[in-house]
Amino acid sequence: MRTVVVTGGGTGIGREVAAQFASEACNVVITGRRADVLKKAVDEIGGSVRAVTVDGTDPEQTAAVAREIGAVDVLVNNAGGNTDFDREEPRHLGDIADAWRQNLDSNLMTAVLMTTALLPAMPRGSAVITIGSIAADKGAGSYGAAKAAVASWNVDLARQIGDRGITANIVSPGYIADTEFFRDKLTDERRDSLVEAAMTNRAGTPADIAATVRFLASPGARQITGQTIAVNGGEWTTR
Ligand SMILES: NC(=O)c1ccc[n+]([C@@H]2O[C@H](COP(=O)([O-])OP(=O)(O)OC[C@H]3O[C@@H](n4cnc5c(N)ncnc54)[C@H](OP(=O)(O)O)[C@@H]3O)[C@@H](O)[C@H]2O)c1
After folding, report:
1. Where exactly are the transmembrane stretches of this chain (predicted)?
2. What per-residue confidence (pLDDT) applies to 238?
3. Closest by CA position to 31, among listed 116, 93, 101, 110
């Protein structure tokens, strides 16, 4: 039975990824900072899912979690989001520095730390899948820059672990509904414009992302590595 770790697995995209892996009889570990949110997800998903409360920006906590989890076949670095949504408008240069560091911590460091901590216990045939964002291509302040950094890091990671038979890829979503990503800040007008920007004329769903993550973790995807796979309804094309 494969062991799958999904960071930020208590809500949104991560929760659906966890539920889909659980449905194919994997041992699934979900992480996040809010124990009550994780417990609710574990209760609702059922199967072999368990929760570990951790702040993925903290190296010591992450190292302890990795020791406790042990061998892992699939790591899904999903934790993150645009931390600017939880901040006041910056007024001083110090505020701007804090805001940029928070988005880099939330999106880049969570992935770098968990991957580095778990890699020694990942056998040949494993997969590291990290959730990026269309914001890396379109530009979106410190959040877009952090997701672009994640994509660049992934290329080097893939190169380093390729001869161990481990793949590393990014799944890069466009607008995905039914998550906590936008907090309460997404207006109807903005939602409509995001939907209209997609060639499919619909919002993406956590299930769209989970299906691509599962494919990248499947035997059919072993020659795919170092890539960024866009799942955005054509809002931004790679050609
Ligand atoms: N929704 C979209 O339109 C969209 C588009 C492009 C990319 N994405 C990306 O998709 C990923 C999943 O986001 P989502 O849309 O599903 O939003 P979400 O519902 O807010 O999920 C983010 C999850 O990450 C966890 N998390 C955040 N910081 C963490 C930390 N320091 N340590 C541990 N866990 C942490 C959160 O749990 P706690 O708060 O309890 O820690 C939460 O469960 C993110 O990387 C996001 O940037 C989303």
Report:
1. none
2. 84
3. 110
Closest atom of ligand 1 relative to the 37 alpha carbon = 40
pLDDT digits (tens, 9 = 90+) for 196-222: 999 999 999 999 999 999 999 999 999
CA distance 189 to 138: 19
Whether ligand 1 lies within 6 angstroms of the CB of 13 is answered as yes
Residues belonging to the chain: 239
Is the beta carbon of 142 within 6 A of some atom in ligand 1?
no
- Tokens 């619909």 correspond to what residue? 202
- Could you read off the pLDDT of 166-185 as tens digits, one per residue? 999 999 999 999 999 999 89
Rounded Cα–Cα distance for residues 145 and 147 (Å):
5
Q: Catalytic positions, please?
A: 143
The residue whose CA is least distant from atom 39 of ligand 1 is: 33
Q: Which residue has its alpha carbon closest to ligand 1 atom 25? A: 8
**Is the Cβ–Cβ distance between 110 and 55 less than 8 Å?**
no
Domain boundaries in the chain?
A: 3-231
Interval between CA 110 and ligand 1 midpoint (Å) = 11
34 lines ligand 1 (CB under 6 A): yes
The CATH architecture that domain 3-231 belongs to is 3-Layer(aba) Sandwich (3.40)
pLDDT digits (tens, 9 = 90+) for 13-46: 999 999 999 999 999 999 999 999 999 999 999 9
Distances (CA, A) of 4 to 83, 207, 234: 26, 17, 29
- Give the separation between CA 110 and CA 61, rounded to whole angstroms: 11
Q: How crowded is residue 138: how many other Cβ atoms within 10 Å of its Cβ?
A: 13
